[in-house]
Design a protein that fits this description.
- By secondary structure, this protein is α/β, with parallel strands linked by helices.
- It has 2 domains: about 1-325, Up-down Bundle (ABC transporter transmembrane region fold); about 330-539, P-loop containing nucleotide triphosphate hydrolases (Rossmann fold).
- The longest helix has about 55 residues, at about 225-275.
- α5 (about 120-135) crosses α13, α6 (about 135-160) runs antiparallel to α7 and α9 runs antiparallel to α10 (about 280-295).
- The chain has helices at about 5-10, 15-55, 65-110, 110-115, 120-135, 135-160, 165-215, 215-220, 225-275, 280-295, 295-300, 300-305, 310-325, 385-390, 420-425, 435-445, 445-450, 470-485, 500-515, and strands spanning about 330-335, 345-350, 360-370, 375-380, 400-405, 405-410, 490, 520-525, 535-539.
Length: about 550
Amino acid sequence: MHELRPWLKLISLRRGRLIVGALLLLATLLSGISLLALSGWFLTETALVGLLLAAGAQAYINLYVPGGGIRFFAVSRTVSRYLERIYNHNTVLQLLTDIRVALFDRMAVAGQRERGGKTGAQWLSRLTADVDALDTLYLRVIAPTALAAVVSLILVVATWIVFSGTVALFLLSLLTLAIYVASRRVYLQTQAMSGQLSDQYEALRGDVIEHLEGYAELSAAGRTGKHAGRLMRQARAISRTQARVDSHAGWHQSVSHLLVNLAVVLALWSGAELFHQGQLTGPLMVLLPVALLGLIEVYSTLPDAFAKLGATVAAAGRLNEEISPNPDHNNRQLAGPDSMAGNALVVRDISVGYSGHAPIFSHYSLTVAQGERLGIVGASGAGKSTLADAIAGLISSQSGTITTLPCAYLTQRTVIFEDTVKANLLMGNSSATDGDLWRILELVELAERFAREADGLDTWLGSAGNRLSGGEARRLVLARVLLTPAALVVLDEPFTGVDKQTRERITPQLNHWLEGRAVICLGHGPEALLPSGHTLHLT
């Protein structure tokens, strides 16, 4: 299970919360077992006293102390369980935050090549189902298993003290076997099936998303029924695999409970022998067997958790594999202005391409001075966007080095988040004021557009910015990039979807705003660029 090591290391950073949560779980379990054991002792004691009184013998019983103990354990069990649920679920949410932040950080460091060519549906599965499989690792697997072992050891020690060492060793053997069957044995039996189930769920989620996205095309081709039938066959295969996993978990749970019941019988038989020898009282004789019955509650959660552990390991393996950066291709570095000798970008002898294909360009070098304006033009497929991605660090070059000042990058793709105008703009500069936002909107001629809206900067843009036209969306993401206080600005097709008149009006304002910063502007022709000192042609 080496796939879990980086995530276990991440989880252990909150060891203080984990320890407190485990103690609350332990308090809940001990209160429940103590309540069960004390109640059994009390019922036995009152029954014996009643029989003695009915036979005319003198007998007495203290009702207040055990009665108070029963009330105490009943209240402590309720309170500790309530606190444990609140505290541990809050801990799980914090662990979920840690896992997602760590995952996003690693994805940001890794280039596109290292992140792999996954579809949107596959990445959705990674960022939801796979992450969710990791965030309950502590609460479902680690803590219950550790506490089951601790509680079992406490009962074994109590048996050693009250009964005998021999009985304690027999109980230790049975309980150890019960924990093994409910945990490790279940995992070994279901690991492959559980991992397969995880892969099947991912494939089905992706196919369902593709079915919904392509429903119009499927309907036009008359293939909706066949495609839906394929989805149903996948769902039935998942159900069969799930049934097999559940069956294994159920059988192992039954064997685990059988072993606990054997321990109860052993404790009851040993207690009866000690009672006949006069070494134990009747109520004390039933105390241990009743307490052992409480272990069934502790052990019952383990088989299901370990039956799903194979899927968790598979999820961790997928996340590790997809976003592990390749240190051999970490050849881009950020530098300070003082170390750049007046340059904003230095590209030395880089080659960029994709595995299994010839490089898009080889042994390419480029130097851009601070404050310089450079235009790069070329036909589709000439490598403009690839070069821009390499400069911005989205992909790694196969050879050579790139040294650059902090860079702001407008990609060829227009991305609007389902949020407000203000939230979308603040991604470029989180410290920008409302005044700064209105100024940048005025620069790209969108201020009047949103001033007419009742919510102003808080106007909701809809899914993928569907409340905006293509030109408005492009100008909004351009404004977001311009807000970024970077010394180097890379603009790939900045005026896509923007009409000629609007482009001609805002270009002088953009030039003034970018004054003093190095700018690389890429496009199919000079008319798609900002005015530049000189222009390079990629062929």
